[in-house]
Amino acid sequence: MSGLAFNGQPSLGDALAIGRLPTRNDALLVAELRGGIDAVARALVAASKAEGWLREDGGSWRVLPDARVSDPLRVALRDRLAQSGRAFGVDALHAAALAVALKDRDARTSALVNAGLVRDRAAAQMRSIAVFVGSDVFLVGGILAIALGYAKGPVLVSAAVLAILVGAATVGAGMFMLLRATRGMPSRTALGNRTLAWIEENTQALAEDVKNGMRRDADSALLAAAAHGA
Amino acid sequence: VRAVKTRKAAEVLPFLPAAVRNRLEELAATLQKTLGDKLHALVLHGSAVRGGYVAGTSGVDVVVVLTDDAPALLESVGPALRLAHAAARIECTLLRLDEIQRSADVFPLLYADIKDAHAMMHGADPFAALEIKSEHRRLRIEQELREASLSLRRLVAYDDLAGPALGAPLAHLVKRLRSPLRALLALLGDDVKDDHERVLAAAGKRFDVDTTSLSSPAKKPHDALIALKRLLDAATRAADALVVPA
């Protein structure tokens, strides 16, 4: 069952729109849009704390085994944390939340891409590969040019160093782009930025109420953390 | 008998923050457009009208009076209500016009609060001629005080809160007591101005409880917890023993 679903209700990417408050089904899409996988993991933790089954005790965390958990992703998080023993640290908690958040990431990203809120990751990968190949050609071309004797003496050394530095930097940039495209947060479109700004503005009161303890239910905590961070 | 203040929203809205005011006006426009003639009235009440509204903390209370409560109609306004709540703490109570007088026996304090201080945002005033009986008030006062005691016990026993974390839920509980305490004081003959701090101080004086810590429970949550329990016990005993004319 997809983690995008809640009580059997399918969630649609086009549910995130200016003028429409995201429902609990859409909260993880908001987190994904705002801060990628890390924001999704933190939103899951915030909702789990609000639901009452995840507790912090003097710097360590524990799970109440028999507590009611209402969402499939949070059930997965509880089960994963239960394997960590009776008490665990914040690093173990974050790692478990990240692992669970990864489960439905492709579905969330597809929904956001289809809604025009983030750029297509496949296209980003193609751009990364093009940069990667281009940098290789540049590097190999520079080395070949030096080897063929277009330059001599100190100029030869400078050209070689320059070619290596520029080539290495380009390869680094290509690798960074490839990593970002495959593991990091897809980049938001202008519509994605406007939509996120609208959601943040219109959940301001909700987020303040969650922060100061006036709203303590899991749905409010989830949406507040998704839109504003935990 | 208190004077009934029926005001127009235009008298009240300028005192609210611009962002909240805009949200209220947007909500009113959306409800009028979506509900058409099924919307009888929009009534603003609570601290926004009574006084004591605190920007960034207080909710804005609105009664939406409908002539029809068909589920499809309610669903159609759901997104606008949720948005107003999340964006500006606008809390709407949905009432059907024909149930207001008939439900005055079970909601006497809510209706008395609304009747005392409200502002019309749209339509005709459904609370102007409302009758509320003293015995219904007494029963409801006792019920709300006893419910607050149950909530307090649950908070202490179940919620595993300590220190500063206890402050916010305690403050929420104390806030809930303004209406029943003021109504109780009124039945006991103390006419107190409808202001949270004054009601607390007057109740403390009447029931011999130091309520200083209840003004800001986050500062001394343990003291506030003890004071709240004493106040609830004393006020509940008084409400229970009160004899009012039918």
Task: Give the assembly state of these chains.
Answer: heterodimer
DSSP strand (E) fraction of chain B? 5-15%
Shape of chain B: globular
Order of helices and strands of chain B: EHHEHEHEHEHHHHH
User: Share of helix among residues of chain A?
Assistant: 55-70%
Low-confidence stretches of chain A: 1-13
Strand order of the largest sheet of chain A: 1-2
Helix/strand order of chain A: HEEHHHHHHHH
Structure write-up:
The complex is a heterodimer of chains A (230) and B (246). By secondary structure, chain A is mainly α. Chain A has helices spanning 27-51, 72-82, 90-102, 105-114, 121-147, 153-182, 190-202, 204-211, 218-228, and strands at 54-57, 60-63. Chain A has nine helices and two strands. Chain A has a two-stranded antiparallel sheet with strand order 1-2. In chain A, helix 1 (27-51) packs across helix 2, helix 1 (27-51) packs across helix 9 (218-228) and helix 2 (72-82) crosses helix 3. In chain A, 36% of the residues are buried. With 246 residues, chain B is of the alpha/beta class. Chain B has ten helices and five strands, in the order βααβαβαβαβααααα. The model of chain B has no long low-confidence stretch (mean pLDDT 91). The A-B interface holds A 20-21, 55, 201-206, 208-209, 212-214, 216, 223 and B 56-57, 79, 82-83, 85-89, 160, 165, 167-169, 172.
